[in-house]
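User: I'm curious whether this sequence folds into something compact or stays loose and floppy. Could you predict its structure so I can see for myself?
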Amino acid sequence: MKFKQFLKTKGQIAKFGPGPDEVAVPGAVFIDRDNKSISIFDYGQLKISSYNIDSALVMDKYCPTTISNFNNQQFPDRYVHVNDTLGFARSITIDPKKKGYTQGICRYNITTGELTDISGPSRMEGLKSLFGISVADRIIAEGATNNDILNIYDFNGRLLHEIKGPDYEPQVVKGKVFFREIKVIPDYILAAYSGRASGENAYSADRIHVYNHDGSYVKTLIIGKDITDMAYDNTSNRLFCIFNDENIQFGYIELDGIL
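Assistant: Here's the prediction. I'll summarize afterward.
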């Protein structure tokens, strides 16, 4: 079988390491197409570095710009960029007394470094989750990994809908994994779901629960292969997936005719 090479390496814009112009522990990466820049979260150096793509590719001694700093007590994780003053992330707050951390959902301003929790003081203690957003509809869908619950917020942090599944408990559930990936697409929320006991395959999902934006259940898509990551393409209406499967590692699902 012959494969056509579609991607070509243009060059390297960042070096890994502890130096002032290097990236120690990379996290989120986002592209600002208007300014032709790439920004990288560096959890080792507690900062966000921005690289002008054109300059970084041609200048041997190019130095990135630090656009924001964050502290090691509370910081954003899995950041999703909206604009220079608005983004969303999981907030990680270190608790030195308990030698652990708490997690929530937050707004994060990359220009000022301001982090604002939106999940509120009534959040279940110990809840862990992941999320997806829709800029067009200004909603955030948060699926818990350690409980059978899906929360939907508006961009101001107001809880709009709380959807409790059949395995919901009033406290976090140990030994079982629930939501694994969330994508908010036009009209629907696609939530990859495990529901398995902790083990080798628990952190992947073989099905997708589909909800309307108001949280009402639509259907479940049984995929039959374990999904580890998802991305939605609006132009083709396809859901691209990375699978934990020896035969198919990358593929897509045609959503036309299904939803």
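Summary: Residues 12-69 form one domain. Residues 1-5 have pLDDT under 50 and may be disordered.
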